[in-house]
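Entry 14. Structure prediction run on the chain below.
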Amino acid sequence: MRRTDDTFTDYPRKPDRIECEDDRWYVRTREGRRGPFGSRRAAEAEAALFVDTMAYLQQAQALPPNLDCADVEVVNIDRMPWR
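Output returned:
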């Protein structure tokens, strides 16, 4: 279930999102196929990193409910002084 879903639906999932094709390892995600990786262990590490990254991005995009929008400044990160 996604956070944006209104109702819970139990979808069957393949238990392993790691797959091997021609001695190359891939990770299947909702966003697409990631890889190739040289080993299953490397693909598993990438899968764990991907899950952590997606969770972080979802949390980082959430604004606190009591935030005053006048206190927020949009910054263009392409024009930062250290670049």
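The chain has a mean pLDDT of 78.
Filed with the rest of this week's runs.
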